[in-house]
Amino acid sequence: MSKPTVLIIGGGAAGFFAACLLAEKHSNIKITILEKDKEVLKKVRISGGGRCNVTHSCFEARDLVKFYPRGEKELYAPFLQFQPKDTIEWFSKNDVALKTEADGRMFPITDSSETIIECFMRICKKHHVDIKLSCRVNAVRKMDAKWEVTVSDKTYLSDYLIITAGSSPSIWTILASMGHTIVPAVPSLFTFKVNDKALNGLAGISLPAASIKILGLKHATAGPVLITHWGLSGPAILKMSAWAAVELHELKYEFDIEVNWISQTYDDVLTDIKQIKESDAKKQIGNVVMYKIPHRFWMYLLHTSDIQSTQQWANLTKKQTQDLARNMTKFTLNVKGKSTNKEEFVTAGGVSLKEVNFKNFQSKIQENLYFAGEVLNIDGLTGGFNFQSAWTGAYIISKEISTKL
Ligand SMILES: Cc1cc2nc3c(=O)[nH]c(=O)nc-3n(C[C@H](O)[C@H](O)[C@H](O)COP(=O)(O)OP(=O)(O)OC[C@H]3O[C@@H](n4cnc5c(N)ncnc54)[C@H](O)[C@@H]3O)c2cc1C
């Protein structure tokens, strides 16, 4: 009797993890990865600035799902089965130790994505996973109980088909022709372009406790904001780009944001200014910085509020007081365009989650067809959440296929 066969389309994070898990467990199956490029695991290599942010130190499924603008509901039960603790354990078992950074991101202790790649390649080699490079899949069809997958002039037959092709328009087209709904893809995790010479001149300054709103939309995020020479970046901006990914795409990335640089209320700032006017009446405004705002940014806020830095606090007019409080808490900026975040970016959109059974990541339309990773309409915030979703999906698929072998 011939061995059961598993075909994996896409040699990225999810595809390799599924291959490794299945190969470690079953010696009597034939696993083949079909990769369109000359090289596999390209995104893993460049991920996290070359360090690969493998996962995040968030160990409660109910907290973890909050990091997924798309996939929150669907990932809850899967995370109860395979979550960052399991990721850490699996890599540790395979001689890859992970470390946690102050913000919760987890990386290999080598600070090199090559460690992750070597780990996957070692396991695949040991268990004879067949990795086919330069094999772009251009057709998939069901032939009785088998899957028939076509790569230029060659055809592969398999019992189980795992699709881990990431954000692949050609694969989405094939899946649409097989009856799946594809949610249109839009970018997520990008930074905002703001054309304000004075602000752009402050590149490098970070406001650690800012909050942001997009005017006209309901999204609000909080966290550090980094000023760059093209606009704004940092965790609060990246979070916003993810939560509002679809709406911002519809707005063609032209919109107004309101920034509260210090996450204090306007009224509280007015009260604090009143106090400083009494306690530091004779001091120059430029020399008494409020809320530990970086000095150069404080000068910018004074400038935009029409206040001389040499002016004494006692002489601050009512209008200047209100303008300063408003500029600290309700600063409006016009965003015109987006820019790529080099550390991590991802695509929102993909296979509609309504058509996938999240007990086993199997298509509800086609039996023995599975999806994991970015091919699905699931994406997370920056911080290791996108890889975690890929690992979890691959784990559950491998578990499900194992029960059928
Ligand atoms: C610069 C950058 C940095 C990132 N850093 C991080 C990070 O540090 N942490 C994190 O959690 N996430 C990070 N991400 C996101 C993360 O890389 C993805 O979410 C993850 O790689 C998705 O895994 P995947 O297996 O679904 O898809 P991919 O890793 O994209 O793999 C899909 C594979 O399928 C292949 N393929 C596509 N079409 C076909 C076809 N027709 N036939 C055959 N093969 C095909 C592709 O060539 C590719 O190799 C980063 C992304 C980028 C772009």
Low-confidence stretches: none
Number-wise, the strands total: 22
Q: At the fourth CATH level, what is the homologous superfamily of the largest domain?
A: FAD/NAD(P)-binding domain
How would you sum up the major sheet?
Answer: 7 strands, antiparallel
Which small compounds were modeled alongside the protein? Answer: flavin-adenine dinucleotide
Number of helices: 14
Q: Fraction of residues in helices?
A: 25-40%
Q: What is the architecture of the largest domain at the second tier of CATH? A: 3-Layer(bba) Sandwich
Chain oligomer state: single chain
Fraction in beta strands: 25-35%
How are the strands of the largest sheet arranged?
Answer: 17-16-13-14-15-12-18
Q: Per the principal axes of the C-alpha atoms, what is the gross shape?
A: elongated
**Text of the CATH class of the largest domain:** Alpha Beta
Radius of gyration based on Cα positions: 25 Å
Class by alpha and beta content? alpha+beta
Distance between the termini: 13 Å
**What's the structural domain tally?**
2
Average pLDDT rating: 97
